[in-house]
Amino acid sequence: MRKLFSILFVLTASGFYSSLAHAATSVINCPVTQARVQMTTGLLGGWWRTPYVNNLQGTAVQMIGGKRTLVCKYGNHAAFWTMRLEPTTKICQPRSRDFLCKDKVQPARTLRTGPLVIPQTYLVDLDYGQVRSQGADIWFQAQTATRRFITPRNGATIGIAGTRSVGRDGCKNRTLRAIPIPLPRIPVGSYVCVKTNEGRYAQFRVNRAAGASPGNLHIGYTTWRR
User: Where is the signal peptide (predicted)?
Assistant: First the structure.
């Protein structure tokens, strides 16, 4: 009957796992920079086996048991590897001696979306998609027939995004202020980011010019869930 033998995998150098728990990006290091593998089964009759010692040779992310697994390789055979599961909240990329891990991007969930027509001097509540005469997020303000603004109200903040949609995450990364935007600065095709007075992010596009005073501003908007 064939005698079974076992292998002892000995970690011979210091290492650590570092992760910034609340950061968007973190690093996971391999546990050691050098590994020693030796047989633990006793050998009779003068036989011996030289321990295998090797430095860290590389890393990989592999599917093992149907799960994404971080692999540190000290040789070509899996017996010389160390492994751990990828954190469920991260996506990791292998580098020469560690793994660069980023938070999984949570898909933006839409709360409300659609077209709105804002009469001059009226306000819009983007949390509810309603044109109102009071208590809302943005105001189509008219100081005179030619000096007109989109003005944030009730703690909301706004900022010009440009001529392309930037989505929820793009709006999160922009500087938004409680400062009116003159209407000429947002011609047809412009996008504006909003943080509503209830703390949600929204974006609207100017679809049609307001025309001569008193005018109506036509927008298409999307408000995302928190």
Answer: 1-23
